[in-house]
Amino acid sequence: MAEPKYKRILLKLSGEALMGDAGYGIHPEAVATVADEIREIHAMGVSVAVVVGGGNIFRGIQADEKGLDRVTADHMGMLATVINGLALQDALEKKGVPTRLQTAIGMQALAEPFIRRRAIRHLEKGRVVIFAAGTGNPYFTTDSAASLRAIEIKAELLLKATKVDGVYSADPKKDPGAEKYASLNYMQALEKGLRIMDATAISLCMENAIPIRVFNLFQPGNIRRIVEGEAIGSIVS
């Protein structure tokens, strides 16, 4: 196994990554597959933090469009990410990977509160840290939470897991002529409106020089290859 290029990474997972082909909720096999990918790089000595979304259970912005109060809807979405975080923690620990779940909203019976110094200490001790409940504030996406946590733990790379193999000029499933970008800078990503992550998330990474690697999560071994330094997917830097 090659020596890792990156010693500390933050992996941003969508809630959809945990639902498999079920169309809704949590699929145990999908969660186990993600856990296997994380276990592989953890075994290489890489410090791994994860931010998980909740779109497989509840998506606040869609509920807002249907008439539910936006703040209430966003809080419901944050709770969905905690459910996903618990599922991923369970899958990782069953595979022998020590894991801690921290939440931006206090719920001590289920998880630790997010405390930056404690999170860094867990990483230093070889534990995977899962960050749930977004930033704890409405109107902020889990993409923004991923950028913020990456900065706070001094991650060397933010891995944005998707269903496609990088950043395209248009949806490649709808437009066969869509151009794939091997690399682009933060301003290009913002100006082209490529929707890699929301503007706040990209701006945070730009201001703090955190590169974003966009890749296909569903290609086995991609996370390991990225950590080893392969140019998988697209890089925004």
Write up what this structure looks like.
By secondary structure, this protein is of the alpha/beta class. It contains eight helices and eleven strands. It has a nine-stranded mixed sheet with strand order 4-3-5-2-1-6-10-11-9, with helices on both faces. Strands 7-8 form a two-stranded antiparallel sheet.
> Mean pLDDT, rounded to whole units?
94
Q: What does the radius of gyration come to?
A: 17 Å
Uncertain segments of ≥5 residues (pLDDT<50)?
Answer: none
Please, how many domains? 1
Features:
single chain, about 240 residues, alpha/beta, Carbamate kinase, nine-stranded mixed beta sheet, two-stranded antiparallel sheet, globular
What's the quick description here?
Helix content is 37%, strand content 19%.
Set out the fold topology.
Elements: E1 8-13, H1 28-42, E2 47-52, H2 60-65, H3 70-94, E3 99-103, E4 112-113, H4 116-124, E5 128-132, H5 142-152, E6 157-162, E7 167-168, E8 180-181, E9 183-184, H6 186-191, H7 199-207, E10 212-216, H8 222-227, E11 234-236
Parallel strand pairs: 1-2, 1-6, 2-5, 3-4, 3-5, 6-10, 9-11
Antiparallel strand pairs: 7-8, 10-11
